[in-house]
Write a structure and sequence with these properties.
The structure is a single chain. The protein has 32 helices and no strands. The protein is an all-alpha fold. It has a domain at 532-603: Tetratricopeptide repeat domain (Serine Threonine Protein Phosphatase 5, Tetratricopeptide repeat, Alpha Horseshoe), CATH 1.25.40.10. Helix 4 (70-83) packs antiparallel against helix 5 (89-100), helix 22 (401-414) runs antiparallel to helix 23 (419-434) and helix 24 (438-448) runs antiparallel to helix 25 (454-473). The radius of gyration is 35 Å and the shape is extended.
Length: 603
């Protein structure tokens, strides 16, 4: 019984001691966090005597440093070094105290001693490097990793850590050198290296990283002109900087030395340039491949790609004179004769249909081209429905609204729960709007406003608000009917008639909620007519007179791109992007505007 009482008494004493220690720790932390370091140091001294763990040591050292009691700080470090001779981070603590005392030589000697103490046992290395990083001595963190490499005789050890340190230091040439040294030893790591460098380039605050990579690449290519890895990296890097012309020059140089590899690179540059609207470069690349002859494995892709580029030119510039149209039409027909009408030439047939309908005014030839696609025996269901949707758009353009509506319904029915079905439903609702069936159209648009497709949802919301606002303000729908008629004429590319329709509304009333929309539509007409200065003036009026209407941010973005791409007025473009970012922060165009604004600002 007596033994049991003694055991209980011992347990209670232990619990009481533990509770007191916990209370002291909380009180010490409170004093430390509130800058009362004298009180904190007394408590941490007591706690450290009881339990010499690392946390109490670090807190006590920090309090001495804050109090300027460097003698006590050094004594503390020295005592811990005797107790823990393998802990190399304590030498960093020693050097840190010495630096605070303005004894730089002694401090650096302590840092050097820590690095010299690294052995083949690399366990202390990560903690030592982090200790140097913690005091802002990234140069010594780099020396730590490099010393570990020497001891281990492993040239790629701590690759990720070292490149990260060089990035923090801003030593981008050394960082890039690490990447290339890794590729020298492991060429198969190229994709991984590219992803790492891509991330670093995006995070870089200025051009210094890009400049460092460029210098390092040029040096390596000059020193090793026959190294495929460096040449491929040069092409990749040029594409990252969107220097498509230089990328193509490098790809052609690779092709001259390594024909088995180079043509793949030329095709890649062509496709990426095309996707980024660098159409001249893409066209030159496709022609380069075609000159290799019809037996070349990339001939087919190059033939198709070049015509896709020419189609993109037409779409970007709106206008196409009769002679150019006739020439382009013949090139398409020659391609069909040479390559056939098959699954591989479906993109050409679809573009040819759009070219003939929307630019050539030949709806029947366009319908025939899409019918050729639909009659292919092994056509994928998704492609079939995409082509049906395009055919419906084309029929609407030609004025065959009933046939267009039937096709829209077919596509919607077979794609009920995906984006294509939502697009078909939206276009059918818009057709109802053109036909003045506003209430039905609006009921369908309200459903689409919750579509999983952000683009469809936004388009549906915009048209729904247009209808709702004007149904409320005009119970007879008179102005809205005139506006819908003009919209259909605009869609059908009857530009002068559409302009007259919008004009009729402006002449009929002194003021109307549709006036901002009319300015936007007129700007779009002038852009299609390549009358860009007039379009810019209309967009400027819209933003000035109707800054709170739904079209204001659209007008700002359109005006910015117009001035940047067509009017060669980057300053006005920059101002528009800036205004959009400041005045319309929730706009859908925010991300795009920020990228363009930063690009213009850095020029």
């Amino acid at each position: 019984m007596r033994k049991l009482i003694l055991l209980i008494a011992w347990c209670l004493a232990f619990i009481g001691g533990a509770s007191a220690q916990q209370t002291n720790e909380q009180l010490a932390a409170y004093y430390f966090d509130h800058g009362e370091f004298a009180q904190a140091s007394q408590l941490y001294e007591s706690l450290y005597k009881q339990t010499t763990n690392k946390y109490y040591y670090q807190r006590l050292l920090a309090t001495y440093m804050e109090l300027g009691d460097y003698r006590s700080a050094l004594r503390l470090v020295e005592r811990r070094q005797k107790a823990n001779p393998k802990d190399l981070t304590l030498m960093v603590d020693e050097g840190t105290v010495l630096l605070r005392q303005k004894q730089e030589k002694k401090a650096l000697k302590a840092f050097d001693k820590a690095i010299e103490s690294i052995t083949t046992n690399l366990q202390p290395v990560p903690d030592l490097a982090q200790a140097f990083i913690g005091i802002g001595r990234h140069d010594y963190a780099a020396k730590t990793y490099l010393a570990a490499r020497v001891k281990s005789r492993n040239r790629t050890l701590y690759f990720n850590e070292l490149t990260g340190v060089y990035q923090l230091m801003g030593d981008y040439e050394a960082m890039t050198g690490e990447y290339f040294d890794l590729l020298d030893n492991s060429p198969g790591m190229m994709r991984s290296v590219q992803l790492s460098m891509q991330r670093a380039l995006k995070e870089a605050p200025d051009q210094r990283l890009a400049d460092g990579v460029r210098r390092a690449l040029v040096t390596r290519v000059q020193e090793h002109p026959d190294n495929k890895t460096y040449l491929e990296m040069m092409i990749w890097f040029s594409l990252q900087l969107e220097d498509f012309r230089f990328a193509l020059e490098q790809a052609e140089a690779v092709d001259a030395r390594f024909p088995d590899l180079g043509s793949d690179q030329v095709l890649r540059v062509a496709q990426i340039s095309q996707n980024n609207d660098a159409l001249d470069v893409a066209s030159d690349a496709y022609r380069y491949l075609q000159r290799k002859g019809t037996s070349h494995p990339h001939y087919f892709a190059a033939r198709v790609g070049e015509l896709e580029v020419e189609f993109a030119r037409v779409n970007n510039n709106y206008l196409l004179d009769d002679k150019s149209l006739a020439s382009l039409r013949q090139r398409y027909l020659a391609a069909f004769d040479e390559l056939g009408k098959n699954e591989q030439t479906i993109p050409l047939l679809r573009h040819f249909a759009a070219l003939m309908a929307y630019h050539g005014g030949d709806a029947q030839e366009a319908v025939n081209a899409l019918d050729d696609v639909l009659e292919m025996p092994r056509l994928k269901p998704l492609v079939r429905d995409e082509v049906k949707l395009e055919l419906a758009d084309l029929l609407l353009f030609a004025g065959q609204t009933w046939d267009a509506s039937l096709l829209y319904m077919q596509v919607e029915k077979s794609n009920k729960n995906d984006v294509l079905g939502a697009q078909a439903k939206y276009r059918n609702a818009k057709l109802s709007y053109y036909n003045h069936d506003f209430e039905w159209a609006n009921s369908q648009l309200k459903v689409l406003r919750s579509s999983t497709s952000k683009l469809v949802a936004n388009d549906a919301m915009e048209l729904s608000l247009l209808i709702s606002d004007n149904m409320e303000d005009d119970s007879t729908y008179g102005m809205l009917e005139l506006f819908a008629d003009a919209d259909l004429l605009l869609y059908r590319n009857l530009l002068d008639s559409a302009w007259a329709g919008y004009d009729a509304i402006q002449r009929a009333v002194l003021s109307h909620p549709l006036f901002d929309e009319i300015l936007m539509r007129k700007a779009q007409i002038r852009m299609k007519q390549a009358r860009y200065t007039e379009a810019d003036s209309l967009l400027e009026r819209l933003v000035s007179f109707y800054p709170y209407d739904i079209t204001a941010d659209d007008a700002l973005m359109l005006r910015a791109e117009l001035n940047e791409e067509k009017l060669s007025n980057p300053e006005v473009a920059r101002q528009c992007y800036e205004k959009l970012l400041l005045d319309y922060p929730t706009s859908l165009y925010t991300d795009r505007a920020r990228k363009r604004y930063n690009a213009l600002k850095s020029r």
